[in-house]
Amino acid sequence: MGGDFLDFVQDASKKDSPIRDEFLRVFNDPNVTAQSLCDFLHGKDYTGVTLEHCEKMIAARAHLGTIEAGDIGGQVAIKY
What we know:
The chain is 52% helix and 12% strand. It is an alpha+beta fold and 80 residues long.
């Protein structure tokens, strides 16, 4: 585990990933902020995930509700 934003997306997209459920729990909390999400991911050693990445995810959530990570046909994807 750990790395940059792409590493995080790949790890979170795996069904058996330990980060997947934790991330979804944190991300879907209506009180989560970009900073708290960034702090969470840095605490999981995804230090290449920036505050800007987290701001964009939070902004997308505001328009789309929740986020789900999934593995679709072998492709890594984050589904909104």
